[in-house]
User: Fold these one by one.
Assistant:
Number 1:
Amino acid sequence: MSDSEDHHFESKADSGASKTYPQQAGAIRKGGHIVIKNRPCKVVEVSTSKTGKHGHAKCHFVAIDIFTSKKLEDIVPSSHNCDVPHVDRQDYQLIDIAEDGFISLLTESGDTKDDLKLPTDDALLTQIKDGFAEGKDLILSVMCAMGEEQICAVKEVGGGK
C-alpha cells in the first residue's frame, strides 16, 4: 500500500472549471439561465417559431442580465447548443462596511471575504446600511456567475437586539 491512495478532492469545481456548459436551445426554459452577448442572464420569455421548408425551428429568448438587470434578446436554432452559465449562490455574514464601499464578509470556514462592494440597488443598499447601523446580524446572499459576484439579497438572522 502506498500513501498515494489518499486522494482528497473538493466537490467545488472552481479551479479550471468552465464558467458555462452547453445546452440545446430547445431545452432551455423560462426561469433558466443562458449566456447572451457574453453576459449571464435569467430567461424571462421563450418562444419557438417554425421556419420554412428547409429551415430550423428557432428559439427566441428574452432574458435579464443577472448582474445589471438589462434586458437582452437572442434567436438561436432550437437544435443548436447555447452556453448556460454556472450560477452559484453563497450566503455570508456581514462583518463590516468600509468607507470606500467595500464590505467585509465572514465565510463558512471562518475566513473573511473583502473583495465585494456594496450593491448599487437602492433598496438593497438601504436595507444593508440601516440593518448594519442598528447592529443587526445580517446574512448577505452573493450570486456568482462567469467570474462575477454581486450581492443579490439580505436577510436578518435571530431576533433583533
Note: The first helix runs from residue 122 to 133.
Number 2:
Amino acid sequence: MTAPSPAPNRRWRDLALIGGLLVLVLAGLAGLAIATGWEETRAELAKFGWAQVGILLVLSLVNYGMRAVRWHLFTRRLDLPTHLGQSIRHFFGGFAMSVTPGRVGELIRLRWLSRETGASLDRTAPLVLVDRAADLAAMGLALGLTLALGAGGIAYATPVAALAVALAVIVTRPALLSRIVTLTFRLTGRAPRLMSRARRAALSLGLFTEPKLLTAVGLLSLFGWLAEGYAFHLLLVWFGAELDMATAIAIFLFATLAGGLTGAPGGLGGAEIAMVALLTLKGISPEVAIAATSIIRLTTLWFAIAIGLAVFPIAERKAAKAL
C-alpha cells in the first residue's frame, strides 16, 4: 500500500501557504520593530555580516545532519534497505512541509520510503512517532540541563521541559501508548480503522527501545539541538547582548517548544513572541531582541524549509523512478 502522489495544484497551494506564512511572520516582526523603534532595529540588523550568517547556517546544518543520521538509524532498525544518502534526501526533503498544520506534510517521507523500498505504510508509520519523540526528549533534556546550569527566571520552563520528556517517554513505551490509543477509542468510539492502525504502530515501537540505539539517537538529537541553541548564543554575543550561554540556549529551546505547543505550523508566531518576550525580560533591548529573533528564525526554520524545497523535487523524481 502506498500513499497517493500529491496533485500539482496541491503542491502549489502548499508553496503559497509557506510564502503567506513567511510574509505574515515578517510583517508581524516588522510591526513590532516599528512600534518599538524601527530605526534602532534596522541599525542592529545592519551590523550583521554574511560571514556571521554563514556560521549560523553551518550550525543549523549540524542539527539537520545529526537528525538525518538519526532517521537513517531508525530506518535501518526496521530492516529497510536504505543507505545514508537516501535517508538524508528523504529527511531534508521533508523539511519542505515543515509549516503544514501539525507538520503532517512531513509524512511525505513515508511515501518516498514506501516507493523505494516496497515497505507498507503500516510498517514505516512508527518512524514518525519515534522521530518526533527523539526531538521532544532531546529538547526537554537540553532545556533541563541549561536550567540546572543556572538559566533561571524563565516562567514555565521546567513544566515544559518535563512535559516534552514525558511525551517522549510515552511514545517510546509501546504497551503504554497502545493502552492510551485503546482507551481513546473506548471513550470516543470514532475512527476504528485509524485507531487499529495506530495501535499496531504503537506496539511496533518496541523495535526502537534497544539501549544502544536509544543512546546513539539520544546523543545525535541532543548535540543537534544544542548546536542551534549555541548559534542563538553566538548571535546575541555578536549583538553585544550580555546573556550567558545557558540562558540563551534555554530561551531558544523554550521558545521553540512553546511555539510547537501552540499547534501553529512550524510554531510560527508563538515561538517568535516567546523569544522576543523572554529576551526583553532578561534586559535585552527590544531592537536587539527583534533583530536576533528574526535572524535566528530565518537561519533555522526558514533555512530548513529552503533546503526542503530544493531537495523535494529530487526526492520526488527518485521515488517515481523506483515505481
Note: The longest helix spans residues 8-46.
Number 3:
Amino acid sequence: MKKFSLTAMARTQMQLAATASSGRSANTVFGGHEHTLRQTVIGLAAGTELKEHINPGEATIMVLSGRIRLTSGQEHWEGRTGDLLVLPAGYSQITALEESGLLLNVAKIDRLEAAGND
C-alpha cells in the first residue's frame, strides 16, 4: 500500500513549472507506459499549453488547483479546482488559464484489440 498527497505533489510540480522554460512539469504517481493505468501529476504555469494529443484510451483530468481550458476541435470546457473533466475521444489540448496543478488519469486501450471487438 502506498499513500500520496496529491496536493503536495501538485504544489511541487507547479513550483518546478514556474522555473521551467516549457512552463510545465510532471511526475508519474502510479503506473507507466508498461501499465494499462497511468496517473500523472502535472504542474502548469499560467498561459502554458499542453499541445494537442490523442487520447490513448479513457482519460480524465482532475483539477487539483487553478483553472484550465480543455479544447477538442471547436468545443472547449473550463475546469477549476475540484473539477473532473473527461477527455473526449480523439485529440484535445489543455491550456492553463492560471497556475494549475492537475492529475491526469489514463487507462490505455490496446487499439488492435479494441478493433477486433467491433
Note: The radius of gyration is 14 Å.
Number 4:
Amino acid sequence: MSAREKREIARLNENSSSDLGACGWILVCFSFLLFLVTFPLSAFLCFEIVMEYQRAVIFRLGHILKGAKGPGIYLILPCIDNVVTVDMRTVSFDIAPQEILTKDSVTVLVDGVVYYRVQNAILSVTNVAYADSATRLLAQTTLRNVLGTKSLSQILSDREEIAHSMQITLDEATDDWGIKVERVEIKDVKLPIQLQRAMAAEAEATREARAKVIAAEGERNSSLALKEAAIVITESPAALQLRYLQTLTTIAAEKNSTIIFPLPLDMLQCLIGTKR
C-alpha cells in the first residue's frame, strides 16, 4: 500500500469516527432497540455474511465504519446502515480493438487484455463511481496514448515492453481508486491489406536475395576445394592413381552392362608423351 493510500484511509477513518450528533445517536439507539424487539425475525435481515474473497464497506448514517469488514458475519442495524460488498478477486477484461495512428503514420487496429483486482475496498467505493467501467475506459485511452508514440516496427517487435509500460501507467492512474493493475497483454495487431502485401513482398525479396548469396558462397567454396584437390593430385601421382580407380569403381556400379578394362595410369602417361 502506497503512502498516498495510507493518508487517504487515515482521512476517511478520521471522518468516520467523528461525532454523529445527538440526532444520530438517537437513531442508532432506536435502530438497535428495533432489532431487539423484532428478534429473532430481524436476524434474517440484520446479519450480513461476507465471503472469503469479499469485503464489506458499511455506511452508518453516511459515515464509513472503521475498516472494511470480512470475511465472516456482521450485524447490520436496520434503517441506518447501508452495506456495499466489494469483490477482491482478480478480474480480466478485453480492450476493444482501437484504431491507432503510429509514429510513422500507419493506421493499425490493436486490442489487448487487462488483469486487475481491488486492493483497497474503501477507496474503490468512496473515490470512484463504477470502478470497473472507469478502469476499462482508462485502459482504452492508455493503449492509444502509448502506441501513438511507437513506430510500426516497435509495435510488432516490442510487445512485452509496451505491455509493461501500459501496466505501469494504468497502475499509477488507478492507485487513488484502490485498484491494482497486475498485468497487461497486447493480443493482436491488425495491419491494412495493402501494407500486409507490401511486407510480404519485401520479405520474399529478402529471402530470394539471401538464397542467391548462399548459393554464390557455396559455388565459391566448391571452386576453392576443387582447386586445392587439383594441386594435391598434381603433386602426388599416387593420389591421381587412386582417383582413377575410384572413378572406375563408380562407373562399374552405375553401368552394370559395361565391361571396363582398366589400363595402368603409367601406360596412359607414356602414350600421352609419345603423342606429344
Note: The domain at 91-191 is CATH 3.30.479.30 (Tetrahydropterin Synthase; Chain A).
